[in-house]
Specification:
The protein is α/β, with parallel strands linked by helices. The protein is 33% helix and 18% strand. The protein is globular and about 55 Å long.
């Protein structure tokens, strides 16, 4: 665990160095714990964390600050791939792997929104996605994007184990260390202890 934290700190140190003369930096991490480790290594007062558990009011406030350029580094876990438009972002950093070409293209797309004075978008891939999926401009990724975009209503990628699931599943079918992944695509919160339960659970 300490080795993982050291590697994360070293990567973020490099990200901060190469982002000195850039605008906003959008960082995709793997888990909430990973997001928190990344946040700890970023300059205080210049970074924020957004996950699926971030309250809507807080998320709106943070996104407004990101768009205004008041927050330079935004760490997130698979929540800012679509519907997020902050033209100030010109550096996209991948600390998480994905096997989904659509997610890959959508995430990179967060950094290519037009803005006066913005010349390009830097993509830093520390998770081997470029080797796995190819560059956005390559015919392979374009074909995969079209193919998967057509199937997207039928397939969901688990943000925990990255298993591709049909739209009919409520719980991920992936296997982690011999056990079924416990990520729930559909769930209801217990009113008493706030635990996520299957939507059919009676207790």
């Amino acid at each position: 665990a300490s080795e993982g934290k050291r590697i994360t700190a070293d990567i973020i140190k490099e990200v901060v160095e190469i982002s000195k003369n850039r605008g906003g930096v959008l960082i995709f991490a793997s888990t909430i714990k990973h997001c928190e480790e990344v946040l700890q290594s970023l300059p205080k007062g210049e970074a924020c964390l957004i996950t699926g558990k971030t309250p809507d009011t807080e998320r709106i406030k943070l996104i407004d600050q990101i768009k205004a350029g008041k927050i330079k580094y935004t760490v997130n876990m698979n929540v800012l791939t679509t519907g997020f438009n902050a033209p100030t972002i010109d550096h996209v950093v991948f600390l998480r792997p994905t096997s989904s070409p659509v997610l890959w293209v959508q995430a990179i797309g967060r950094g290519v929104r037009l803005l006066d004075g913005k010349k390009d978008c830097l993509v830093s891939d520390y998770a081997g996605n470029l080797d796995r999926l190819g560059e956005m401009e390559e015919p392979l990724i374009a074909n995969l994007k079209r193919q998967q975009a057509k199937d997207m209503p039928l397939i969901f990628e688990c943000p925990t184990c990255y298993e591709m699931n049909p739209s009919t599943v409520r719980r991920c079918n992936g296997i982690i260390n011999g056990l079924r992944c416990d990520y729930l695509f559909q769930f209801k919160d217990c009113w008493s202890c706030q635990t996520q339960n299957d939507i059919t659970a009676r207790h």
